[in-house]
Amino acid sequence: MSLLSDLINLDLSASTTKIIAEYVWIGGSGMDLRSKARTLSGPVNDPSKLPKWNYDGSSTGQATGEDSEVILHPQAIFKDPFRRGNNILVMCDAYTPAGVPIPGNNRHNAAKIFSHPDVAAEEPWYGIEQEYTLLQKDIKWPLGWPVGGFPGPQGPYYCGAGADKAFGREIVDAHYKACLYAGINISGVNAEVMPGQWEFQVGPAIGISAGDEVWIARFLLERITEMAGVVLSLDPKPIEGDWNGAGAHTNYSTKSMRADGGYEVIKKAIGKLELKHKQHIACYGVGNERRLTGKHETASIETFKWGVANRGASVRIGRDTEREGKGYFEDRRPASNMDPYVVTSMIAETTIIGK
Questions:
Q1: Which positions ≥6 away from 252 have C-beta within 8 Å?
Q2: In terms of DSSP bridges, do strands 329-331 and 315-317 run parallel, antiparallel, or are they unpaired?
């Protein structure tokens, strides 16, 4: 195994200028991440300089066998923490050979919204709190939980320390460092309320980059849990009963909200979100009705309410924002399995373009 490890960690820079580019894309379920690698003649820093590539869409649920070719368009580059050196990860979106976005290519529509002059002028910032659950590989039960049984009730696990409270910290720390190495603006991590559940935060990130960074952060976590022999779950309610679900709270601000007098802009934006509550809920993740029950730090999926420092609200404003009269707000409705391209662009479209 030592030879295998040596080869995996082999530094290629002394023997070749070639690099390895891992192309990453979203599969047919809208949640599965796929990737494959290719050799390039030298370092590349601009995604527009990368070649397009194809894959078999009939094997990912994105095309038929009779017309299976799907084309990957490189969109964002990140450093590869696994291969290191000049090797890269490439976030891609998918098109037909004729250049039409395939169904499920939510990045394409998000990019159009973020390029709208009104949206671009407001420089929307996002901070996304990605919650997730680590599962034991063979039984799909949360890490650290007794097989076929339950741990003690919630209370000691949130931001906890100790072998009987925090399960999977090595995975979390490895992921944190891998994200920083890759160039993702990860701003923190913490253990969550349910044991075996954790959170990482991405942001502040501007516009379309928020979606790119969250998807690559998810890819890194999938790879690291693969190495650890642990299963990653983004199910919004992985365990039924008196246990917290998993969300992707989305913190949001615009230039007008961050400026003096921004508190009034925030309240107007929240009013627009309330008017389109059902439309947003429909796009905020699959199975979210199991999580948004009005319990466990959520508002009911059926109602919209906002408040200051209220973690049982649909939208929360922080005390600092209220005190300073400007800042940001938190949309607490998105589920852990939401598509960040959809959620970020939809919030911008509703609050900036929407009348």
A1: 124, 125, 126, 127, 328, 329, 330, 331, 344, 347, 351
A2: antiparallel
**Paired tokens of 88:** 């890269």
The first and second tokens of residue 198, run together, are: 């954790």
Q: What is the dihedral of CA 199, 113, 78, 53, to 10 degrees?
A: 120
For 174-195, the pLDDT digits (tens) are 999 999 999 999 999 999 999 9
Predicted TM-score (pTM) of the model is: 0.97
Residue labelled with tokens 């580019």: 21
Tokens of 185: 């603006």
CA atoms within 13 A on the CB side of 51: 11
Rounded CA-CA distance 188/201 in Å is: 5
Distance CA 101, CA 26 (A): 13
φ, ψ of residue 324 to 5 degrees: the values are -85, -15
pLDDT of residue 297: 86
- Please state, in angstroms and as integers, the Cα–Cα distance from residue 168 to each residue in 89, 158, 260, 318, following that order: 25, 13, 43, 30
pLDDT tens-digit map of 116-135: 999 999 999 999 999 999 99
Give the pLDDT confidence score for residue 311 in this predicted structure.
83
Give the side-chain half-sphere CA count within 13 A for 299. Answer: 22
